[in-house]
Amino acid sequence: MYGKAFAPEYRGALGELSVNSSLDDVLRTALDRLREAERADDALESAHAGLAVAEASRRLGRVAQAEQAWKDSYRAARRAGDEGAMAWAVWSGGTLARQCGDLALAMRWLTIAAELAKRGGDVVARGYSLAGLAETGRIRGDYQAVAELHEQLLAEARRRGEARHTVWALEGIAQIHRNTGAYDKALAMFEEAAQIAARADDTRGHAWALRGIADVLSLRGESERALDLLSRAETACRRMGLVSALAYNHKMRGNVLYRAGRYEEARVVYAGALDEFTKMSEPRGTALARLGLVKAEARLGRERAATAADLDELHRTLDGLGLRHARDMVERARTDLGLVPADAGSAGRP
Q1: Taking the CB of residue 144, how many other CB atoms lie within 10 A of it?
Q2: C-alpha to C-alpha distance for 269 and 267, rounded to whole angstroms
Q3: What pTM does this model have?
Q4: Which residues form a coiled coil (predicted)?
């Protein structure tokens, strides 16, 4: 039903690159091709190569390089008069904005990308842009607003047999189910995503699906199985150089250890994840890792006033980022740590 996963963001002369190519290799190859295209004054090929530079840099956590590359790609695509290539560049910019925690800017760029793709007749770029809008809305906690779009994109991906997009949509819907307490549905969808990704040789999608499965298993008390899955996902992340995904994997390992009452181990892992997110300037991951660290240290006897002050600051940070579910997690932490009356907490889980 599904073919082998491919990476449509690797375009033009870079189209033969695998979805599983090491990001360091992608970046080196793309930079070489960009220099060749610029010497040949080939604007469209410069746009394609610049897009690959932007995406490899973003996934490696090199924010400034990614920012410059997607803008250069857009300018080259505009010189070439190719609205499809312009759409891909702006999609990359929107994805970077989301990674950097500017969700409003992400929505703006992704909306523009979807319109450019529509005008340029690039169905795949439009699908990726709409998927980016759905993911951004989900991260903000706008579940009702984006659930239908997720389902629509899943149906389209299944119809076209696009494994990578099917996996993405399944994981997005599964995350909504997980965050709203429908753990059985979430687990089933994460497991289907993992199966499809494995058959399609989509290493990145498979690693994210394993992380989702581990999360739900941990919530059910199956800590050792969860940790084993995270170890498998970590191996894949390291092989491809997926810096951001690896940091989120480590943050989830901290969650699993914390839920199991292994607070000192959780503290160490959260601290490591916090350092990883800080180095790549990823505010959402930074705040979530810090929340885990604050909770673990509280369980290890940290002074209550200091914990309360940190939670206040995290609430303001997450509220400023527009992360409703994460903000609710702070309120749940207050309740779990006995810093507010039980009826003042919300249903968020770490």
Answers
A1: 9
A2: 6
A3: 0.87
A4: 20-47
